[in-house]
Amino acid sequence: MDEKDPYALLGVARTASDDEIRKAYRKLARKYHPDVNPNDRKAEERFKEISLAYEVLADKEKRARYDEFGAQSFAQGFDPDQAREYARWSRGASQSPFHTRSASDVDIDIEDLLGGLFGGARRPRGPAKGADAEGEIAIDFLDAVRGGEVRVQVAGRGALRVKIPPGADTGTRIRLAGQGDEGVLGGSRGDLFLTLRVRPHPFFSRNGSDLSLDLPVTLPELVLGASIEVPTPDGTVTMRIPAGSANGRSLRLRGKGVAKLGAAGERGDLYVRLVAELPDPADPRLEAIMKELEPLYEGRDVRARLKKGAP
Q1: Which of 56, 53, 62 is closest to 32 using CA atoms?
Q2: SS3 for 231?
Q3: Using an 8 Å Cβ cutoff, are 58 and 7 in contact?
Q4: What whole-number percentage of the chain has pLDDT above 70?
Q5: Strand partners for 26
Q6: Taking a C-beta distance cutoff of 8 angstroms, is the pair 241, 226 a contact?
Q7: Which residues share a beta bridge with 236?
Q8: 40-50: buried (b, 16+ CB within 10 Å) or exposed (e) per residue?
């Protein structure tokens, strides 16, 4: 393989993934960076070569051109359509008994083309921005709901402070400017894009911008009504349970849900489902109280609605 082949320069296979190419470049860039090798011309030249190689392979369009046409695709005035047409003509001519064409007939200097891509006759290029990087971080449920600044560990970059927008959710992407790969030839660093993964909460669950909560209540609170404290993402609030509420009833607290991402001032609701907690079954008084309640059900079939339409 030619030493000027960008794949060879980075030491990766032609089938290498973007991540493999990025890792190979980072490793070589650290090794040959001028700051690590002061006054070393060979290291400096090597660094320029691997930087240019990465510039080609990190760009999907440039990589595709190189894979299809090789280094000649970067020569000044190169026309990919003409190159494809010539390739078709060349294949047909090679099968004709009236004409053959050797590589020496082609008016292209491969060394000049390679030099045009990797130095030599090539026009010097200015600084180029480094590649963007991707990562994933896990954050707490309430940090996503309320927003704020969190400190996280990002592989290869150490501890970073990340601003979480209120209403963020699993899959939300956050851009950290200048935290990507190093630039080429003094160019600015790329950006880092972090995808959020939100940890589940012990009692809140989420559906879009709405939250739900199963709230344990006593039988007297359901029957007689009560004012009780309810946790919300912003702290505890007092909620009134209407007398005669059924077990499983859902009450809505408006505006106590999640901030709507990208909609300033708008929030979802918190739905509180009442879940009756029975007294301690080991308490001997429970049996006596239940027997006192039995007459209240006389003449009433509490499962009547289940029998309608039953097979």
Answers
A1: 53
A2: strand
A3: no
A4: 79
A5: none
A6: yes
A7: 231
A8: eeebeebbbbb
**pLDDT confidence tier of residue 44, bands split at 50, 70 and 90:** confident
- Strand boundaries in 182-300, DSSP class E: 192-198, 204-207, 210-218, 226-232, 235-241, 250-253, 270-277
**pLDDT > 90? residue 33:** no
Helix (H, G, I), strand (E, B) or coil at 115: helix
Residue 122 is classified by DSSP as S
Q: What mean pLDDT is reported for the chain?
A: 81
Query: Cα(176)–Cα(196) distance, rounded to whole angstroms?
Result: 13
Which alpha helices (H) appear in the chain, and where do they start and end?
A: 6-10, 18-32, 41-57, 60-69, 80-94, 110-118, 141-146, 219-224, 284-293, 304-307
102 CA to centre of own chain: 51
Reference 119, options 52, 219, 187, 20; nearest CA is 52
User: Using CA atoms, how far apart are residues 124 and 171, in angstroms rounded to an integer?
Assistant: 41
Cα–Cα distance, 58 to 131 (Å, whole number): 7
Residues in contact with 187: Cβ distance below 8 Å, sequence separation at least 6, in sequence order: 126, 127, 128, 129, 130
List the structure tokens of 251.
Answer: 């009450």
Q: How far apart are CA 274 and CA 216, in angstroms?
A: 6
Token output for 306? 């289940």
Cβ atoms within 10 Å of 52's Cβ, excluding its own: 21
pLDDT at 158 over 80: no
Q: Please give the Cα distance from 152 to 171 (Å, whole number).
A: 17
* Residues composing the chain: 311
Q: How confident is the model at residue 204 (pLDDT cuts 50, 70, 90)?
A: very high
**Which pTM was predicted?**
0.57
Determine the 3-state secondary structure of 99 from DSSP.
coil
